[in-house]
TrEMBL record:
Record-annotated TauD/TfdA-like domain positions: 55-345
Name of this chain's protein: TauD/TfdA-like domain-containing protein
UniProt key word Ribonucleoprotein: no
Species of the source: Lactuca sativa (Garden lettuce)
Pfam family, any one: TauD
Record keywords, A-Z: Oxidoreductase
GO molecular function, one term: oxidoreductase activity
Length: 349
């Protein structure tokens, strides 16, 4: 059954071409109003008389993106994420063309913690951990200074049940955590965070942070790995073929100039291994305040709860493309209940 869809005005920003309007904003039941009352995320579909029903029309979508990139970027900055639904994006090659149409520089996954495989061009697999496992909320690569500013997700095969990619506005988490745990947030702002991880030489596909150091630093040379890690503010301590990585202190809160708001820019939820998160992560000291002080389990318990309460989880449909502002929005993954599921990703500066 198709979800209820309702066209809504584009707040005087309707995109027009010579042949007429191209995009229309629609409402989905899962959307939530943001702090300013606008629905999160923005959802764009073709207007009813736009012939975007065949792969041959992909060029029309690409040209619309190129022609109206400033408007789309403005919408992304205002809303945090845009879901494009109903456009002719059917293959990995199509998705790569869409990414190229936006023209954002590519961001590389150096120092990344997840196992990923390049598929084609700028398109990679998402986290290759077993899909029946939860991946907690995080900003992509928040633990290093050179993180992507934008993410594209592409649904090549839609799950029959489960497997959503929930998203949540980061400033809302900051505001609610500051209200609930002001001392915790004050320490986070003063001291930042230090992330610690043990990496083997090879990938561990069973873990959502299972990237081996050879994959993470894109080399099998320890000296080269040390050089690349140092550029990311990471110290490597070798343990035979494995390595202990220590990154930080790095900020746990950032000020987003575009929105003029503080954001919960960190990987707390998917790095913390205390009692509040023990079912997902088992390393209790994988993350701590930058001064070495352990995190409060009660604060983390509330953080995890708030993330779930405030998030939006729209079930995937084949051909969906979701563009996410990584500075404004955290994302996660819910367990897959009924396969198949194939979600691909592209990281951009």
């Amino acid at each position: 059954m198709m979800e209820a869809c309702k066209s809504i005005p584009l707040h005087n920003n309707t995109i027009k071409m010579a042949s007429g309007n191209i995009f229309r904003e629609v409402e989905l039941p899962e959307q939530k109003p943001d702090s300013d009352g606008a629905l999160f995320p923005a959802v764009l579909s073709p207007i009813s008389n736009a012939d975007f029903t065949s792969t041959a029309k992909l060029n029309g979508f690409e040209e619309a993106i190129k022609a109206h990139k400033p408007w789309l970027e403005s919408l992304l900055q205002k809303r945090g994420a845009i879901l494009f639904r109903g456009f002719p994006v059917n293959s990995t090659s199509d998705m790569n063309d869409v990414v190229e149409a936006f023209g954002f520089p590519e961001a590389f996954y150096v120092g990344g913690r997840a196992s990923r495989t390049k598929i084609l061009g700028r398109i990679y697999t998402t986290n290759e951990a077993p899909q029946d496992k939860t991946i907690p909320f995080h900003h992509e690569m928040a633990y290093v200074p050179d993180y992507p500013s934008k993410l594209f997700f592409f649904c090549q095969e839609a799950p029959r049940s489960g497997g959503e990619t929930p998203i949540v506005l980061s400033h809302i988490i900051y505001d609610k955590m500051k209200e609930k745990h002001p001392d915790f947030v004050a320490k986070l702002e003063e001291h930042g965070l230090t992330y610690t991880k043990i990496m083997s030489d090879e990938d561990l596909p069973s873990s959502f942070t299972g990237s081996g150091w050879k994959s993470a630093y894109m080399t099998d040379d320890k000296n080269v790995a040390e050089e690349r890690a140092a550029k990311l503010g990471t110290k490597l301590e070798w343990m035979g073929n494995s390595v202990k990585t220590i990154t930080g202190p790095v900020p746990g809160i950032k000020f987003d100039k575009g929105s003029q708001r503080k954001t919960w820019f960190n990987s707390l939820a998917n790095s913390y291994g205390g009692p509040a998160n023990a079912e997902i992560y088992d390393d209790s000291r994988s993350i701590e305040f930058g001064n070495g002080e352990p995190l409060s389990d009660s604060a983390m318990k509330d953080c995890l709860r708030i993330l779930e309460e405030e998030c939006v989880a729209i079930p995937w449909k084949k051909g969906d493309v979701m563009l996410v502002n990584n500075l404004m929005v955290l994302h996660s993954r819910r367990p897959l209940i009924k396969p198949p599921r194939r979600i691909l990703v592209s990281l951009c500066k």
